[in-house]
Design a protein that fits this description.
CATH topology: Non-ribosomal Peptide Synthetase Peptidyl Carrier Protein, Chain A
CATH class: Mainly Alpha
Oligomer: single chain
Order of helices and strands: HHHHHH
Structural class: mainly alpha
CATH architecture: Orthogonal Bundle
Shape: globular
Number of helices: 6
């Protein structure tokens, strides 16, 4: 598993969002660690799931959002903290026990 600081992960996510944001979203939105990805209209639920998969693939970990408040993972900096917490001390055997994306979307209809 690769390790990164919170700021490195924030920078990586900001770059990904800039490359993958919805074409109908405003280019005037400043994207930073404090940006709410859904409220700003930068990502829809499908793009948000793609972002989660991007982070998981980069760092070889699963991000468990089932017990999280949406405010904890729709803001870039908070999502990065959660990703780093989920990746700390994880074993490969544990990765198979995470809920799938269908369960995540069903448990959080606001995303």
């Amino acid at each position: 598993m690769k390790t990164a600081s919170e700021q490195e992960l924030v920078d990586l996510v900001v770059g990904w969002v800039k490359e993958n944001m919805l074409t109908n979203s405003s280019n005037d939105v400043e994207i930073s660690g404090n940006t709410n990805l859904l409220e700003s209209g930068l990502l829809d639920s499908f793009a948000f799931v793609e972002l989660l998969l991007f982070i998981e693939n980069c760092f070889g970990t699963k991000i468990n959002l089932v017990d999280s408040d949406p405010e904890e993972f729709t803001v870039i900096k908070k999502l990065c903290r959660l990703a780093l917490q989920n990746g700390a001390g994880r074993h490969a055997d544990d990765l198979d026990r995470e809920p799938d994306r269908t369960e995540l979307l069903a448990s959080h209809p606001e995303i």
